[in-house]
Amino acid sequence: MQIEDQIGSSVIAAIKELYGQEVPAKQVQLQKTKSTFEGNLTLVVFPFLRLSHQKPEETAEAIGHYLQEHCPAVASYNVVKGFLNLVIAPEAWKDLLSAIDDDPRYGEKAATKDSPLVMIEYSSPNTNKPLHLGHVRNNLLGWSLSKIMEANGNKVIKTNIVNDRGIHICKSMLAWLKWGNGVTPETAHKKGDHLIGDFYVAFDKHYKEECKELEAKYIAEGMEEKDAEEKAKNEAPLIKEAHAMLVKWEHNDPEVRALWKKMNSWVYKGFDETYKALGVSFDKIYYESNTYLEGKRKVEEGLKKGLFFRKDDGSVWADLTKEGLDQKLLLRADGTSVYMTQDIGTAEMRFNDYPIDKMIYVVGNEQNYHFQVLSILLDRLGFKWGKDLVHFSYGMVELPNGKMKSREGTVVDADDLIAQMISDARKTSDELGKFKDMSEDEKAEIARIVGLGALKYFILKVDARKNMLFNPAESIDFNGNTGPFIQYTYARIRSIMRKSGIDNEPAKGAESLKAADGYQPNEKEVELIQKMDEFKFAVADAGQNYNPAGIANYCYELTKLFNQFYHDYSILNADTDAEKSFRLVLARNVAKTIKNGMELLGIEVPERM
After folding, report:
1. pTM value?
2. Are residues 566 and 452 in the same domain?
3. Helices (H) then strands (E): counts for the chain
4. Could you report the per-residue pLDDT of 164-205, keeping only the tens digit for each?
5. Into how many domains does the chain fold?
């Protein structure tokens, strides 16, 4: 039984014996003792005053005395006002370390056949451009959240919705036809998503030139500047051609559809390379070219049921005024769908594919209103998880030199960023002498692990709801709250394990600690055991609050604590064999916990550095 469980049961028994009353387990509040007081765990006694009819100090004293007499985990206690500080017995800490050693995934829960099914949507790229820094944050958050929800005992389906239709892809297609001269990713020696992105930028450049000429013409004819600008945007030949291509696509024109499939296939191949480099994947990918028709059908169905209404121009709307919102367009007058329609269709397809209990959308905070409306509409349409859908809303990523603008071609490309991070990690590791006695292949692999670890950790340690400034130079640092610092500590422990001779011995809990019989852990060792035990709370909190940053900061705190311990105490040159045996089991489990925690962030840890 866990230390908290032992104490909790004993507190309930104490209340029953002392005051003749039963109390529910949730009233037993245990927390880590403040560093200014003696003790490991603190019991809050205020909830029991109505039963004791005594002062807080008297109540705490009575419960503390009972625990010392009846709970083996409690060695001693002290009372500070309404708080009972408990000093945990050395053997209880060793038993806890034994339990941690016994469980390869200590602190995590395994899914069962009855576990809820959580679907998490992330990435959601457009097929007219490559993935950029904003997508990197989205993918890393989505992947980490998926791992965290699994660690909380949920069944998880990771899904992606690809925006593969609409005016944006027609712009790239039209530009390729006009200025591409039949170029392919192979002939251009370029990833397909980058090639298509180039044509999207080219379209925008030529379109702006046309708009500028038309605007000048309209102003010369006496039109107001604002009106001239708006008319030019609508009358520019390129945008008219793009819209005409979209209409052909909607009507299944064979030539347009063939070009669309060919160019999208180039993009998907490019996306897959980026996803692989980032270490993310999906269980199911949906495409808006399939879901938008389902959405239109679902809206028409809702219209017949009186859930929506049609205006005189033929457009279909949802009236959300009773919910304190406005009216929301679902189908345009010409019958074409909007994003909301597509999301309804995607939800319908997913609901038919999986028995979803919870749906989480990982989408930037500029879409907060969209998902507020989507939740209401899905609930109105009868989706059991509609009302409770979760919009995991995250802030934007900026660089020291400002925001990104994809249309101008100044986007921070994901592939370039990944390559740069790996290159910087290689350079920094070389300068710090981390690559001694390694082959070129080993150096390249460790540079990849460290570079990506630096990128992922820097992004994930920030509260997702906040806008963030990503500074590549700060992320690759082997000191401080960084991925490389945690990775290096893990590698250091693994080196100790290899030197110890017990590296290949299986973890066997109590049996592993037999050689440490009689040894009583010191204060720093107790802190480490207690911190490892707190991993379960970090996992639970991260799952409840959808907060990967909580795991990142836990990993840093555990790593920092181990380094403080390692600075003060030797492991391999401990004073006694019992001391050495205990510390080896302790260090092995610190490494395991670091590895498991970083895995929840999608971060690898190297065996040596």
Report:
1. 0.92
2. yes
3. 22, 14
4. 988 899 999 999 999 999 999 999 999 999 999 999 999 999
5. 3
